[in-house]
Amino acid sequence: MVQSCGPKEKDDIKPTPVNPKPDPEPEIEQKEFSYKISKDFNIEFSEYLKGIKVKDLQENDVVKHFGNRLTYIKPDSLYIKEDSLSVFSHKMPKQSFKIKWENDFLQIFDQKNNQWKNWAKRDPKDSVITINISFYKKTILNEERSNLTLGQVYGFMDKKTMLDSDAKNNSELIWMSRNYIFNLIKKK
């Protein structure tokens, strides 16, 4: 048995209207970015004695003061996915950070101090990221001790925290601030 219901007249049937344009899909924000280093250069490379700048150093002085440290520390590529950053170097293990963006500054979460700190700067179109790394070698000699400290810090460090102007100390600080420029290679 077959049964159907509908209009009595064939001409009463009206086609269902077809929406000519589908609703636009919401635009998905890009959340993954890959960057590759394009160049690096010194912003400052100076020698300080007892807290006073005595001279600017040249690129050929880098190995004398820092050995191969720049080669090992130099990041090769960056990968950003949502709120995390991975830093890759061919000589070092991968580093990972929790991040957030504050205007054009990439900030990392410093667990030791429980605060956010500026780590890098990006251009408004996300195509270039600039990282600053500060390298230092500090020597303190006095009657009681001698101390040599070597290190590097990602981000924008103020060298004033490293300067020593104590008259009883014979202190020397070699300070180098270096920029690393990364270009966007992939975004999805």
- Uncertain regions: pLDDT < 50 for 5+ in a row? none
Percent helix = under 10%
Overall structural class, as computed from helix and strand content, comes to: mainly beta
Order of helices and strands: EEHHEEEEEEEE
Number of helices: 2
- Gyration radius, in Å: 29 Å
Q: How far apart lie the N and C ends?
A: 57 Å
Largest sheet, spatial ordering of strands: 1-3-4-5-6-7-8-10
Overall pLDDT? 84
The strand count comes to: 10
Coarse morphology = elongated
Give a concise summary.
The protein is mainly beta and 188 residues long.
Describe the structure in your own words:
The chain has 188 residues and is mainly beta. The chain has helices spanning 62-66, 69-73; strands at residues 32-49, 52-56, 77-81, 84-88, 95-102, 105-110, 115-122, 128-141, 146-154, 170-187. The protein has an eight-stranded antiparallel beta barrel. It is elongated and about 60 Å long.
